[in-house]
Amino acid sequence: MPGINEYIEQFGAKSFTKYPFSPADNLTISQLVYLDFESVVSPSFDEAPRPFAEVCNTLFARHGYRHEPIGLVLPADASINSMRMAVQKRFSEMRVWAAQTAYSRDPALQFAALTFLLPTGDAVIAFRGTDDSLAGWIEDLNIFLQDDVPSHPYAVEYLKEVAARTTGNLILCGHSKGGHLALYASVTADPAIRKRIIGIYNNEGPGFLTYDLFHTDAYRELLPRYRHFVPYSSAIGMMLAHDYDYTAVFSTKHLGPLQHDVASWQIVNGAIITRPDVNNLAKIVDILFSDFPLSISEERRKILAETATRLSCATDEEMLVGIVRHFPRELKKALQAWHTFPKQTRKEFHAAFSPFPSILVNAVKNIKEETVPKAAEAAGMLLSKVTEHI
Fold first, then answer.
1. Which of 22, 110, 179, 192 is deepest in the core (most CB within 10 A)?
2. Do 43 and 139 share a domain, yes or no?
3. Cβ proximity of 235 and 256 under 8 Å
4. Structural domain ending residue among the three candidates 318, 336, 351
């Protein structure tokens, strides 16, 4: 079924001046930003923006004219689509600007953002989701354990800088952690910047530890301009405290985690194909990962975060590809580091997970109690319709 690649071909001849930025463009760019644009585009806002096609051709040449997977978990789709986009009028009209990154093992930090300037004068800020770095995955874990993570201020500052150097409308988007950052930066931005934001696209980004952000006046102000897309069997976008104004989308993959790949999300005639709601598995994930993190005391959450960071720093490899390639060696180092922790720390680490089974059971029970009455109601309506014709 058609998806991002077909959208590029079908709408590539339509200029942004004739056919405005759409949710499908958001998916296209949110996937694209996983490419290492920072290797060919300056991080400086003082440097002139570069033509999109030129940047894509330079990046493709840098990779030996080969479409390569992006680390262990990301396929080569982004590279393939970048070259498809480079020859299409719609996307070749874009200019690429300020490819910034930040990385640290301790504290765990993995951040990247890039701006696409449209011929309309709008600026599209795309935040990268989790890449292949172990630090990126540890920072993801910390989203479950902390109110704030190191990427948050970087996202806020990046938006502030783009806003200060442009005069047009602002659009923010991202996939996974990138969507999380797009929402965070928008809601915490100054009022003058928020007024210029015409679109926020969160493509299955995880939520936050608490609902505080969703209770702010800034969030309520931006809500009409905010779109949260999750696949119908979402495994990431329903985690933690999140909005309930999400849109469930159709994916060609069946297993929840596999649906996280936006390349599997379906686009027909320029529109993302939606479903009435997520399935019961996604609803169980919703309850489970909203309740479980808050069942852990603040002190234990701190221990989990510190332990995970120290274990990751004990490895020689910084990327998942390297860890898998040298797994026995890296596992040994991690286990050695684990046994250097005080006995009480290890005890608290294990104790943090003790509520998980009961919360899971309750989540399943709640969904069953919700589903059975609905099924009975539907069966009753069907029966009444049948009896009308007897």
1. 179
2. yes
3. yes
4. 351
Q: Tell whether 283 and 301 lie within a shared domain.
A: no
Listed residues 287, 307, 340: the one ending a domain: 287
CATH number where 25 lies: 3.40.50
Q: What is the DSSP string of 122-168?
A: -EEEEE----SBHHHHHHHHHHTT-S--THHHHHHHHHHHHHHH--S
314 and 222 both lie in a single domain: no
Residues 193 and 300 in one domain: no
Residues sharing a CB contact under 8 Å with residue 312, sequence separation 6 or more, in sequence order: 105, 108, 134, 135, 138
Domain of 340? Answer: 296-351
Full strand arrangement of the beta sheet holding 109-117: 50-51, 95-104, 109-117, 123-127, 170-175, 197-203, 226-231, 247-249, 274-275
- The domain total for the chain is 2
For the stretch 67-107, pLDDT in tens is 988 887 787 899 999 999 999 999 999 999 999 999 999 99
User: In this structure, what are the phi and psi dihedrals at residue 91, rounded to the nearest 5 degrees?
Assistant: -90, -30
DSSP at 208: B
pTM of the predicted model as reported, rounded to 2 decimal places:
0.93
Residue type, 146: Q
* pLDDT tens-digit map of 239-284: 999 999 999 999 999 888 899 999 999 999 999 999 999 999 999 9
Residues 311-347 pLDDT 10s:
999 999 999 999 999 999 999 999 999 999 999 999 9
pLDDT at 36: 96
Interaxial angle between packed helices 77-86 and 23-32, expressed in degrees from 0 to 180 and rounded to the nearest 10: 120
